[in-house]
Input
Amino acid sequence: MDRHWMCQRLEAFDALLVKYAASAHGPLLMRRDHMLRREMHRAEPTIQKILECIDPQLKIDFATSPSLRALYHARVTIKTALGICEDMENWKTRLAPDSPYLIADQLHPWVWDAARTLWESKHYRAAVHAAATSINARLQNKLGRRDLSDAKLVQEALSDKTPEPGKPRLRIPGDQTDPGVQTRQRGALQLGQGAYFALRNPAAHETGDLAEQEALEQLATFSVLARLIDTCQVVT
Output
């Protein structure tokens, strides 16, 4: 809605009501009174539409020759509508429910401890890269492997294949025959690979920094992955 236009029309109509009321009680010619009444009736349909958009309960109702009482109630209605119209934008922002937000230092410590210094210096892409590198190092330590890294390491670690010599696996806690646990295992694998392919690789190779919000969302993704890996059991 064009609130500025709506307010202009309401203010113009209010001024017209004031003029008409004055013409009915002042030394004005009847012709001018008639002209003002015609202007009011011509403007009324648009004003009614504006009032309906602002609040369907707001209405004005004029007879052919509005009484002073009708004029008074019309002005009260117009003033109410103007107040609503002028404050509508503030209602959206200032009266909206508080939205949840991410607290960065509550992300998994593998992520935030690695990213914090870079984040504080506003190097957001580098902070994401540091978080990904940290998880990779923790995963290597957990499995005792240095031959693989990043997405390939995640693929080997979270594979549903049977462990082999030198190739331990990570397993989501729970009954491994349970379909829900198996689904989470596959999901963890896909999440890990996606995080390294879609987030870590661009952070390592692309130029230009990330927007703060985008970087925070990426850190949150790595935090979810870190918690999954941290809770997984190593099977050999």
About this structure: The CA atoms of residues 106 and 131 lie 14 Å apart. The radius of gyration is 34 Å. The chain is about 70% helix and 5% strand.
